[in-house]
């Protein structure tokens, strides 16, 4: 794929790209030929829609085209944090990334400097994975399960004009 | 309003049940595994997924719809990477909010511009006093700080303390949600 991937790609997206993102970040039709339905609505061809989505995905503008699962209902998971010595952060991060069930890991600026999401098929397995990882790290893991989620709508209107100036 | 609680009830006996605690049977789980990193971008994505998991396309589509109705799938969508669209600053803001008010205020905070996720989580005293998390996204740290100031004002006297934890590095990021069991991969 020859698409360049600069940090801010908003200005490189044309009207059709933007309409695809604006219209379908909230949901694609779940029907027999979804991209055909999208194409009809946008007045273009199925092949064009597929080519655009492929390119947006290859450039990283779309992280994926597919189902968004409800974390709480699609398995057991929790947000976890560890305070590791800053100088050894990357070595600890590697241990965490290698552990089964870890699917995000961010370095953050705080005493608790590594933040990750631990997942498992069920709650007992989740706790077992955390305990195994704790003994591997030799450090306690802060367990921060979601107790309540307020309105979680990950889509928000993208202010294209404003993004072009940045 | 539906309230998700954690932990959910574990499966009895630790055996993999026919239909697990999420109401997913083996075929549903195979579909989740095959689609969680994204759908194949072809005219008939359900048929392509079906060939991978040994079902026909119509059944894959029917199961996707059923999982959506049950709330296991929130939506099937083109998921934008906001970082690539210029939202380069993300701040996880954490707040120590009066327990009596956190539910009402959590709902208010979630509606403020720039907030993508907002959760109530447990405190772990004395090290971790924060019970409300709100993820902020902006084009710069200055913008995130302006958003945080709006939250601070909204929370008022119910909030004792807060922090903004900026991410300095993404060390791992995948969309994978459902783990493969040993031997299944």
TrEMBL record, chain A:
Tagged with keyword NAD: no
Top-level taxon: Bacteria
Keywords of the record: Lyase
Any GO molecular function: lyase activity
Residue ranges of every copy of the Siroheme decarboxylase AsnC-like ligand binding domain listed in the record: 76-148
Residue ranges occupied by any Siroheme decarboxylase NirL-like HTH domain in the UniProt entry: 17-62
A Pfam cross-reference name: AsnC_trans_reg2
Regions annotated as coiled coil: none
Pathway assignment: Porphyrin-containing compound metabolism
UniProt enzyme class: lyase
Catalytically driven reaction(s): siroheme + 2 H(+) = 12,18-didecarboxysiroheme + 2 CO2
InterPro entries cross-referenced by the UniProt entry: AsnC_trans_reg2, HTH-Siroheme_Decarb, NirdL-like_HTH, WH-like_DNA-bd_sf
Entry EC no(s): 4.1.1.111
Oligomer and partners: Probably forms a complex composed of NirD, NirL, NirG and NirH. All proteins are required for the total conversion of siroheme to didecarboxysiroheme.
Function, as annotated: Involved in heme d1 biosynthesis. Catalyzes the decarboxylation of siroheme into didecarboxysiroheme.
Family statement drawn from the similarity comment of this UniProt entry: Belongs to the Ahb/Nir family.
Protein name per the record: siroheme decarboxylase
Organism field: Halomonas ventosae
UniProtKB/TrEMBL annotation, chain B:
Reaction(s) catalysed (UniProt annotation): siroheme + 2 H(+) = 12,18-didecarboxysiroheme + 2 CO2
InterPro entries hit by this protein: AsnC_trans_reg2 (IPR040523), HTH-Siroheme_Decarb (IPR050684), NirdL-like_HTH (IPR053953)
Molecular function GO labels: lyase activity
EC number in record: 4.1.1.111
Superkingdom of the source species: Bacteria
EC top class named in words: lyase
Domain Siroheme decarboxylase AsnC-like ligand binding: 84-172
Disordered: annotated span: 1-22
Record pathway: Porphyrin-containing compound metabolism
Occurrences of domain Siroheme decarboxylase NirL-like HTH (ranges): 28-74
Keywords on record: Lyase
Family: Belongs to the Ahb/Nir family.
Function text: Involved in heme d1 biosynthesis. Catalyzes the decarboxylation of siroheme into didecarboxysiroheme.
Subunit structure: Probably forms a complex composed of NirD, NirL, NirG and NirH. All proteins are required for the total conversion of siroheme to didecarboxysiroheme.
Name of the protein: siroheme decarboxylase
């Amino acid at each position: 794929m020859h698409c360049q991937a600069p940090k801010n790609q908003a200005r490189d997206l044309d009207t059709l790209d933007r309409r695809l993102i604006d219209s379908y970040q909230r949901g694609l039709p779940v029907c027999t030929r979804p991209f055909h339905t999208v194409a009809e609505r946008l007045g273009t061809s199925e092949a064009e829609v597929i080519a655009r989505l492929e390119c947006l995905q290859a450039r990283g503008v779309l992280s994926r085209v597919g189902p968004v699962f409800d974390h709480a209902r699609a398995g057991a998971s929790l947000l976890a944090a560890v305070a590791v010595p800053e100088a050894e952060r990357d070595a600890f991060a590697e241990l965490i990334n290698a552990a089964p069930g870890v699917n995000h890991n961010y370095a953050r600026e705080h005493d608790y400097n590594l933040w990750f999401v631990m997942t498992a098929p069920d709650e007992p397995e989740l706790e077992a994975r955390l305990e195994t990882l704790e003994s591997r790290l030799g450090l306690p893991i802060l367990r921060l399960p979601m107790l309540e989620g307020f309105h979680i709508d990950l889509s928000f209107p993208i202010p294209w004009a404003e993004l072009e100036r940045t | 309003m539906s309230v998700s609680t954690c932990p959910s009830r574990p499966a009895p006996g630790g055996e993999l049940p026919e239909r697990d605690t999420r109401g997913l049977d083996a075929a549903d789980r195979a579909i989740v595994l095959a689609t969680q990193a994204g759908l194949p971008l072809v005219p008939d994505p359900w048929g392509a997924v079906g060939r991978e998991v040994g079902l026909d396309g119509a059944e894959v589509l029917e199961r996707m719809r059923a999982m959506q109705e049950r709330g296991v799938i929130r939506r099937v969508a083109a998921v934008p990477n906001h970082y690539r669209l210029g939202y380069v600053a993300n701040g996880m803001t954490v707040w120590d909010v009066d327990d009596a008010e956190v539910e009402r205020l959590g709902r208010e905070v979630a509606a403020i511009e720039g907030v993508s996720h907002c959760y109530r989580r447990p405190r772990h005293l004395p090290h971790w006093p924060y019970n409300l998390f709100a993820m902020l996204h902006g084009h710069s740290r200055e913008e995130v700080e302006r958003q945080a100031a709006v939250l601070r004002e909204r929370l008022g006297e119910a909030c004792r303390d807060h922090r903004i934890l900026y991410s300095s590095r993404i060390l791992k990021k995948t969309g994978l949600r459902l783990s493969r069991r040993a031997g299944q991969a």
